[in-house]
Design brief:
This protein is mainly alpha-helical and about 90 residues long. It is built from three helices and no strands.
Length: about 90
Amino acid sequence: MTNKTRTLSTKEILADCLTMERHLTETYNKAANDSTGDNFRSDMMGILQEEHQLQSAVFHWMNRRGYHKVQQADQQEIAGTLKRVDKEGL
């Protein structure tokens, strides 16, 4: 039986970091929303902001290296969505 170890690529490591940051922001956001104490909520909001900054940094780093490409939204689609939301509400 051979124990083979595979080394993760930079892209794979960053994708894992981005996924982790997305999950963390969801978790801290839920904790802040569900908290009843002002001090606890404030702490969760501070951590949430830090996690959003980290997530943004990883996202932009991946985007600059071509690991996470973003497609520009079509202006007509944006206008249509805004019109629909304005008419129907969220």
